[in-house]
Amino acid sequence: MRLTLKIFRYDPNTSAGPHYDRFQVEADPNDRVLDLLEAVRGDQDDTLSFRRSCAHGVCGSDAMRINGLNALACKVLVKDLNSDTIQIEPLLGLRVEKDLIVDMEPFFAHYRSILPYLINDEPLPEDGKERLQSEAERERFDDTTKCILCAACTTSCPSFWADGQTIGPAAIVNAHRFIFDSRDRGRLKRLKILAGQAGVWRCRTAFNCTEACPRDIHITRAIAEVKQEILKHS
Amino acid sequence: MAHLKTPLQGYLGYRGREGQTAFLLHRISGIGTALFLTIHILDTALVYFYPGLYEEAIGIYRTTLFGIAELFLVFLVIYHGINGLRIAGFDLFVPQRWNIPTARGSFRLTLILTLLLWLPAAAVMLYNLLHHNFGLFGG
Questions:
Q1: Angle formed by the axes of helices B64-93 and B18-49, to 10°?
Q2: Which of A47, A199, B62, B130 could cysteine-pair with A194, CB 3.0–4.6 Å?
Q3: Where in the sequence is the domain holding A10, given as residue range(s)?
Q4: What's the pTM value of the predicted model, to 2 decimals?
Q5: A95 and A158 fall within a common domain
Q6: What ipTM describes this predicted complex?
Q7: What is the CATH architecture assignment of B19-134?
Q8: Is pLDDT above 60 for B1?
């Protein structure tokens, strides 16, 4: 099948402002959007810039807007788009560096702000080995361990679009992962951060984050659970 | 204006599903209601400060355009209330039920409830509008 790719282009080193370029490509219905981008870069325009790494939905490098929805280019099949024209744009709310590449630093700054690591200064168990937990304790935060920090959720969040200051779904998901970890002792610190002006109360339950998550994390549920935890400790 | 560009691009261009529609409708209904209440408080204040102007303000409320706008306003107020209860209900009582099927389904239920509550009110308001402004139903 023959497809038209309408791709957002921007190069800060040229006088041309942001615009869209169209490319005609031959595609198989089972091709992924990433395959099409590779085909364009390989055969038609080697200046096209986009991020990719594993190409199998694990690294989270190639999140972008495909036909108006955030997704990983390596996980979206042509046949699932049901369209002869595919519009590909960079993630919304982050500064475009070139073409489909955005500056991810504000996203990672929000991630770092919630202390995304185990906090526990208590002495190690008597055997000096692992801090054990039951299956049920591990299950409590299993869903939120799946985040790959692709930013598809945060950049689909209306509150994040508004000013970029909102901490965003990905940071809250990663905070949830530690807040509900029975081994962690940094819960109150994180809850204090998330109770702030840019924290969980900015969630409008628009569900764009949950719909966009390539790992099917129940993001809005995790945010609501953190809200409840804040209320319990306030 | 730069601050408005990204949200507007998102609101208008991002193809979110029921959740985004619910959010946008909630925002529009909230702003619309707040604006109406502000105008309403100001025009009611005219009774004390400028009674003559108050009569004129009430006259404007009786125009057909305002009558039609009020029909939509009632829809927005009812929607805003029910949708707020929907979100608060999930957030406060059953956060573990927040998932894509329940979010989509509960939004549709919100719209149905809003319509069911709005239609009788709209019928009465429409009757009054046609009665007073167009002389129908013996007006």
A1: 130
A2: A199
A3: 2-102
A4: 0.92
A5: no
A6: 0.89
A7: Up-down Bundle (1.20)
A8: no
